[in-house]
Amino acid sequence: MLLIEEWQRYGLLPEVPVIVDGMLWDVTAIYTVYPEFMNSETRNRIITHHNNPFLSPIFKHTVSEEERQQVLSGGPAILLATSGMLNGGPSVSYFANLCEDEKNAIVLVSYQGVGTLGRTIQNGGREVDIELNGKLKHFTVNALVYSIEGFSGHSDRKQLERFVSDIRPKPRKVIIGHGEEGKILELSHYVRRRFGIETYAPHILDALRLK
């Protein structure tokens, strides 16, 4: 959102509406309330100059299916919607409505998990089945598909290692359950070997009682 607002402000992007849908709007509200945790440039802009980029009039919030249909039937726009992997939320509906038109573009800006629709089209899949309203529908992806790296909100390997190292008191067990199987197992072995902490990498449908 920061980049899009800046690009439009400097004329690097066409002045089209930017539609914000899904959990993205709620998360953005947190940044708006706590600008002191932003980088110095954004913090200074919000606090000193009273110019909050997240509140720019270019951003439009949709909450209902009726509003989404109005967006889809309108003119050119930039749509920002969750989930980023196209495995739930309003992004799936938008994708289904837009993917078959070659004039549209799908831009993936986050990690795409194995087995997700996002990973399928990222790997070149152009014939996809999507469940909508309880029915499985087939789509041919004619829209352009782009992947842009560098926008992930996840910690990298070094940050995870440092996090475990800094926890006080040292935990008795670390549960590692988000990522690709090979990476999960490798990190699990490393934490156990490096820090002497018991680790657990649950399988799908495993149940774990926390107490």
From TrEMBL:
Residues in Beta-Casp domain copies: 1-121
GO MF annotation list: exonuclease activity; metal ion binding; RNA endonuclease activity
Top-level taxon of origin: Archaea
A Pfam family it matches: Beta-Casp
Keyword Zinc attached: yes
Gene3D superfamilies to which the protein is assigned, alphabetical: 3.40.50.10890
Keyword Metal-binding: yes
Coiled coil: none
Cofactor(s) needed by this chain: Zn(2+)
SUPFAM superfamilies noted in UniProt: Metallo-hydrolase/oxidoreductase
Keywords: Exonuclease, Hydrolase, Metal-binding, Nuclease, Zinc
InterPro entries attached to this UniProt entry: Beta_Casp, MBL, RibonucZ/Hydroxyglut_hydro, RMMBL
PANTHER family xref list: CLEAVAGE AND POLYADENYLATION SPECIFICITY FACTOR, CLEAVAGE AND POLYADENYLATION SPECIFICITY FACTOR FAMILY MEMBER
Protein name: RNA-metabolising metallo-beta-lactamase
